[in-house]
Write a structure and sequence with these properties.
Shape: flat
Strand order of the largest sheet: 1-6-7-8
Radius of gyration: 22 Å
Number of strands: 11
Order of helices and strands: EHEEHEHEHEEHEEHHEEHHH
CATH topology of one domain: GMP Synthetase, Chain A, domain 3
CATH architecture of one domain: 2-Layer Sandwich
Strand content: 15-25%
Helix content: 25-40%
Length: 383
């Protein structure tokens, strides 16, 4: 390991065009699951000035009022929800895919895919510090707008944090970037003072900036025009902000707009659940879990555990324990994590793995993992 290095993570607010598209897609998914827990949904959203397009494959008992969902979601985010033409282009899931997936306890994966889960002991959230700080910045930025603590803010915004590490431990904040939409008549000096006081200072309480920290607030200058009027939004374009900030591997599949039969989502949640429970159980200080699936097959074709030389047991033992404790089939993951419920929109902003009340964030299998590792190490399992 290098003695000195810098790790950077970014986050965006719920009013960022791409994240708003994610929220719309997950709101459509939630509406489908509300009336049909077995709904099959693959929803994509593209939006630009004056127009929002919702497309995808949706098979559900009742098709929700998608234009109403779109307008409500946009309005609740802080924009004018009635200012857009909404076009919907949806159809049923392919019969070929539906036949391969099925609907019973032997449900096959809805597509092939490689997913990764990660956890580390660096923070109470068991996430890298730059990831936690970046999401805290954007959440505080949104809260400052919603509560009126900072007047004249718009919904669009983003943040970035660079943390310098020495000897493998966080040492100092190297740089902080906050970009926030604002009213045309907002005084820039006042805005910078308010962002420092109400956003940066509380967000970076774990490792406060020092005199050498570079702080950039709206470094491009004015940021009046935001949202879809300034930038086209698209689902699935904030994958690093959704997961581990680029500080852990990513299989490339997006999360939002997909029901639990899609292993891009259910597998990614389960991999995080496994990694977090391994670290929470004290079985490793860092853990990366990778799962690979083939369309139509229930069991993963590959399971890999990497504890980055911090594990209490050999990785082969951990893999045996994981297979014994967790049901890694799509049906098993949906059941264990409650992924047939309308819970997705509430967890799709500020990182999917920062919400401590999310089912996949619970450290509920630590004891079972520890016991299973002891059994595997003693040779109680056979492959």
């Amino acid at each position: 390991m290098r003695d000195k290095y810098i790790l950077t993570a970014e986050s965006v607010t719920e009013g960022h065009p791409d994240k708003l598209c994610d929220t719309i897609a997950d709101s459509v998914l939630d509406a489908c699951l509300s009336s049909d827990p077995a709904a099959r949904v693959a929803c994509e959203v593209m939006a630009t000035a004056g127009k929002i397009i919702v497309a995808g494959e949706i098979t559900a008992r009742d098709l929700p009022d998608i234009p109403a969902i779109v307008c409500r979601t946009v309005r609740e985010t802080g924009y004018g929800g009635s200012d857009y033409e909404v076009e919907t282009v949806t159809h049923d899931q392919s019969d070929d895919i539906a036949g391969a997936v099925g609907s019973d306890t032997q449900m096959g994966a809805g597509d092939q895919g490689i997913v990764y889960g990660f956890a580390c002991s660096e923070t109470p959230q068991l996430l890298p510090l730059p990831v936690v700080m970046a999401h805290r910045l954007t959440l505080l930025l949104t809260n400052a707008r919603r509560t009126g603590i900072i007047r004249g803010l718009g919904p669009d915004g983003k943040a970035q944090v660079s943390v310098e590490y020495q000897g493998g431990a966080s040492y100092r904040i190297a740089a902080v970037v906050v970009s926030c939409q604002h009213d045309a008549d907002k005084d820039m000096d006042e805005l910078r003072r308010e962002i420092i006081r109400h956003v940066i200072v509380p967000a970076l309480r774990d490792l406060y900036p020092d005199p050498k920290t570079e702080v950039f607030i709206n470094p491009s200058g004015r940021f009046v025009l935001g949202g879809f009027e300034a930038d086209t939004g698209l689902t699935g374009r904030k994958l690093m902000a959704d997961t581990y900030g680029g500080l852990a591997p990513h299989g490339g599949g997006a999360l939002s707009g997909k029901d639990g039969s899609k292993v891009d989502r259910s597998g990614a949640y389960m991999a995080r659940y496994i990694a977090k429970n391994i670290v929470a159980a004290g079985l490793a200080e860092r853990c990366t879990v990778s799962l690979a699936y083939a369309i139509g097959r229930a069991e993963p074709v590959a399971v890999d555990i990497d504890t980055h030389q911090t594990g209490k047991y050999p990785e082969a033992v951990l893999e045996q324990a994981v297979r014994a404790v967790f049901d890694l089939t799509p049906a098993g993951m949906i059941s264990a994590l409650g992924l047939d419920r309308p819970i997705f929109a509430r967890f799709c902003n500020y990182g999917h793995f920062t919400h401590q009340d999310a089912p996949w964030e619970q450290c509920s299998r630590t004891e079972a993992l520890s016991e299973s590792c002891q059994m595997a190490a003693a040779g109680a399992f056979t492959r």
